[in-house]
Amino acid sequence: MANEIYLLNISGQDKPGLTSSLTSVLAEYGAKVLDIGQANIHDTLSLGILFEIQSGEKSAAVLKDLLFKSYELGIKAKFTLISSEDYEKWVGLQGKDRYIVTILGEKLTAQQISEVTKIISEKNLNIDAIKRLTGRLSLVKEEEYPRASIELSIRGKIDNKADFTEKFMQISRDLDVDIAFQEDNIYRRNRRLVCFDMDSTLIQAEVIDKLAELAGVGDEVKEITEMAMQGEIDFKESFVRRMKLLKGLSEEVLHDVAVNLPITKGARRLIDTLKGYGFKTAILSGGFTYFGHYLQKELGIDYVYANQLEIKNGVLTGGYLGDIVDGNKKAEYLKELAQKEGINIDQTIAVGDGANDLPMLNLAGLGIAFHAKPTVKKNAQSSISSIGLDGVLYLLGYHDRHIDLID
Fold it and tell me: Which residues are catalytic?
């Protein structure tokens, strides 16, 4: 005897034991569950069960009993008969590429979500699931650190990924929202190493500018720093020029600057969570080891690679020791650390804000431009500009409840 396929849609107030009661009815008649999914918004349930049942008396009886059980539970039930052709067509879609789109902001508006999903629709992609990653916001209590994030799981073939991401970047600029686009592959689910730039990423300052102010050459150094961050001059050239201007600065000043470093909002929450889930972390900086090692102790960072100041008789000589850590050197260190940890480069994440961060951002499995310059955002895989550094956790798919477990 032939079988029939039905989609059972349930809606109504959620309550314990509901799914168990319905699947018990299906079990009684030997139904085979082909797919099942559930969502819950404000205690209102939406449950879908796709099942196969022997046609004839069994199918008629199971539908009747499911309707009776739904009435008994105070929920609504709707049945849709699915043809075997439609079912096989649906099965055929599961081999298509999958992607994750993460939307981030202090608050999310209907317009932001509408514009993002419109692009997805125009590219003939299907949204399989939408998941909220942040906790619910109170309408009465003002949040000290408001943040909102949702994750869209999408499926389909993308012919031009660059065009796709450019459209998202335009929405991001126009509507003040962050949109990250990633392939949903095994590496995304198994990232193991996160590497950070230091200045203007882990801390909200350019240390060399602070040192220059104390040395009385602030304007000259700041101008060179900005040119380097915008990619207008070579980093190595800018580094040598700035170092010479610091000649004669007392070593005592370094300690005073270090203990007053302004750590970026969300950095402690991010690092604590990463450590709690077994990630390795590193600072890869064009700044200085003196401050990198201070942050290493303060935040619990595993590795530090940066430039070493040359100090003689308690003062800076204006020189440095070892190789200059520029953009290419950061990428080399990222590769070395991945090999040292025994992981694939696609399991790494790099976070930075300047032009000298682009080599490591583009090498890493996930490169994130953090509150970055326009040229950097344009050339990075993903960016975060609307919330703090802990926004990285949402790009990894963590929900606030996962983070709060560590907090």
Answer: 197, 199
